[in-house]
Write a structure and sequence with these properties.
Oligomer: single chain
Structural class: alpha/beta
Order of helices and strands: EHEEEHEHEHHEHHEHHEEHEHEHE
CATH topology of the largest domain: Rossmann fold
Radius of gyration: 19 Å
Largest sheet: 6 strands, mixed
Shape: globular
């Protein structure tokens, strides 16, 4: 059985990893005034977005999720011809309608796939499953990396479902924003209150950064630390301890809103990298997607793993 993995553009896996494992990306539109940019996790386009658009705090960018018809067409044009079973992983449904759109598209795809496959001489059935990751950014990357591993092992769809639900239900994702403006601005538009007005005003004045946790579809600040570097170090120390306690899946995914060459210089990264190597854990570092950067801003560092939820002590 040819098993494929599809993720939307917010899934923060390294470009080389996506290419190597042939992960299909569902693009997300970003409306920049009159211009519409497609976020397809193309490294050059993402770099241009960071340098040309994200520095302007007045930027009122708007993300545009793929429609059910766009998802259907992408599958029928290519994906149903390359795979016999496909797992689609979406950003949490509490933040985006992509899961709803992909689910709606899946019914149409399962009705319409036979003609293009027959034309290509493929006479075995096609099936698919859409999974709400209940997380975002580096969190959905953890789930996608585990899906790639299971696909390589040729696990049955039912085995994959059970294992991925276990991993998904225990994904703990954290991030430290470089600039609170984006978190507050986008949160206000979506009715999300991770950073309120008072927190924003005090945090900006005193350089206090929150560590924001995403778990099972909900986000909340779990720590407030003075200075960006100290907040990052606290977050990465927490991840180190989770590796020591034991992970459910052997992947730790990180994403950064900017030049990845800056990440090894951040406090706590070298220690985390050493701990992961010693424990046989894959440390996957990616550029944060343009879509994620619209919400989190430049300089944001995000990290995620799958393990029992434990107190954030830092």
């Amino acid at each position: 059985m040819r098993i494929g993995v599809v993720a939307d553009a917010t899934c923060d896996l390294p470009h080389e990893y996506i290419q190597k494992h042939r992960i299909h990306i569902l693009p997300i539109g970003i409306r920049l005034g009159e211009e519409l940019m497609l976020d397809e996790r193309d490294p050059e386009a993402t770099a241009r977005f960071y340098s040309e658009h994200l520095d302007a705090k007045g930027l009122d960018a708007e993300t545009v999720p793929p429609t059910p018809e766009q998802i259907r067409q992408r599958f029928l044009d290519r994906i149903v011809l390359e795979h016999d079973y496909v797992l689609v992983i979406t950003v949490t449904s509490t933040r985006s309608p992509i899961f709803e759109h992909a689910t709606k598209a899946s019914f149409q795809i399962l009705n319409d796939y036979k003609a293009p496959r027959a034309k290509a001489g493929i006479n075995v059935p096609f099936s698919m499953r859409v999974m709400d990751s209940q997380t975002l950014f580096s969190g959905s990357a953890v789930l996608a990396a585990e899906a790639v591993k299971l696909a390589a092992q040729q696990r049955t769809p039912n085995d994959m479902r059970k294992r991925l639900e276990e991993v998904r239900d225990n994904i703990c994702a954290y991030m430290v924003p470089g600039d609170l403006f984006y978190i507050r601005n986008r949160g206000m538009k979506k009715g999300e209150k991770s950073v309120g007005l008072l927190t924003y005003a005090i945090g900006t004045a005193l350089d206090i950064k929150p560590v924001i946790q995403a778990y099972r579809g909900e986000t909340q600040p779990v720590a407030k630390v003075r200075h960006y570097g100290s907040a990052v170090e606290k977050m990465l120390r927490h991840v180190e301890r989770q590796i020591e306690e034991g992970l459910i899946a052997k992947h730790v995914c990180l994403s950064y809103g900017g030049d990845l060459a800056e990440v090894p210089k951040l406090p706590g990264y070298a220690a985390l990298s050493h701990k992961a190597r010693g424990a046989g854990v894959d440390l996957l570092l990616a550029t944060m997607s343009a879509t994620a950067a619209v919400n989190a801003g430049a300089g944001c560092l995000a990290v995620a793993y799958s393990a029992e939820l434990r107190d954030f002590a830092g």
